[in-house]
Each structure stands twice: as C-alpha cells, then as structure tokens.
Amino acid sequence: MNWAKIRAVIFDLDGVILDSVTLKTEIFLRCYDGKLDETQKAYIREHQAHHGGVGRAEKFKHFEAFLFGRNPDDARINKLIKLYQMHLFEEIDDCALLPGAIEFLKFVQKSCDLHLVSGTLHEDLLRIAKTRSLTDYFNTIAGSPMTKNDAFANIIKRANYHPDAVLAIGDSITEYEVARACGIHFVGIVAPNEPNRFPLHVAAFKNLLELTTAWKRSL
Fold it and tell me: Which fold, 3-19+97-218?
C-alpha cells in the first residue's frame, strides 16, 4: 500500500480509538442478569471478538436464537437494547482513548477525509463522539442499524473515492471482510495480549501510535 495515495480513512471506534471492547463485551453478559453458564459466557465473548463491528440488535437476535432457542421477538430485543444502553452510559465515559488515537487523527486529517463507522447504535455513537470531542475530526459518522457494508459503500460512492485511495482501520474480522468486499485497503489493530485473527498478509499494529510511526516513515 502506498500511504501517500490514501485520501480517506474509515475508522472503527471500539478497540481502535476508544478502549471499550472489554466493557461492551461484559455488558452483553450483564444484560442476561447472571442467567448464563460458563459455556454461554465463553461463546458470547468469542462471538464479540469475531463480530465486533456488528450492531447490538443483530447480536442479541443471534444470542436469543442460538444460545436459548428463543424466537427473538421485537419486544424482547428492544428490552435488551435499552438495558445495554443504560449500562453503556453508566461506564463508557470511564473508558480511555487508546494510545496515539488523537495524534493519529490530527496527523491524517491534514491529508485525508476521515469517517467514523461503528456497530454502536447511531444515536449513542454521536453522543460518545461529542462527549469525547471527536466529532470535528470526522467528515461523516455512521452507526447501526446501518450495516458496515452499506456505510462503507455509501462513503465511497458519495465522495467518489477511488477504492485504492481508501483505508479502513478496524480491530475485528468484520471490518476486514467489509473492506475486502469494497476493494479498499485495510489495517488491523490488535491489542497487546490479544490473538491476531487477521490473515497473515494483513498489516496489523497494536495501536494508532504504532501506525502513525509506520505511516510517517513511509513518506
């Protein structure tokens, strides 16, 4: 990848900018109010690790059907979503920004359009971005229920970016697969002590601080 040709960067939030992956995983467990056995807890943690970019509604629907064999009716899913939201805003402000996040945003903003795309509910994403003074860094912000597939495609189409000039940065296979489907570049963020789930050919960094150093060296 030629870093100098990148004109747009699409960021995930959790695990890339904000150290909130563990919190959000534990909130899914908390929403079931101690009614999970250890196997079910392990499944939710692993599912979250692989599908971090998927919206909470889709995850709850999956858990209801797969773990409990229940029909994921709208009333129950909405109740779980509201419970999740309540827990989220009790603790999300305590999550730190990840190393190098602001420095990288300032650095790439000089030459690129920046876009934030997250599986977080859109209204919650806007609130988090505003609270953390992140809003002004991004040309667009998109959360669920819009899928990442649609969000990425919309960004490319509306701004008429050439796919080779677009980079996505994420910490889950979800973002990688969407980037590949859109024909754009991808860089993975793999937190220290976490397994690298990306294919071997994918460039991966432990945080945006490390990515900033690599980008600057290539210029």
Answer: Rossmann fold (3.40.50)
Strand, helix or coil for residue 215: helix
Cβ 118 vs Cβ 24: under 8 Å: no
Q: In angstroms, rounded to a whole number, what is the distance separating the alpha carbons of residues 190 and 206? A: 5
For 36-76, the pLDDT digits (tens) are 999 999 999 999 888 877 889 999 999 999 999 999 899 99
CA angle 42, 46, 52 (to 5 degrees): 140
- Mind listing the pLDDT tens digit for each residue in 146-191? 999 999 999 999 999 999 999 999 999 999 999 999 999 999 999 9
Residue 122 in contact with residue 142, Cβ under 8 Å?
yes
How far is the C-alpha of 17 from the C-alpha of 99, rounded, in Å? 8
Read off the pLDDT of residues 101-123 as tens digits, 9 standing for 90 and up.
Answer: 999 999 999 999 999 999 999 99
pTM above 0.90, yes or no: yes
Delimit the domains of the chain by residue range.
3-19+97-218, 21-93
Transcribe 108-132 into DSSP letters.
HHTTSEEEEEEEEEHHHHHHHHHHT
Q: Residue type at 144?
A: S
- Contact 188/171 with Cβ under 8 angstroms? yes
Name 194's Cβ contacts closer than 8 Å, sequence gap at least 6.
none
Neighbours of 141 (CB within 10 A): 22
DSSP 98: P
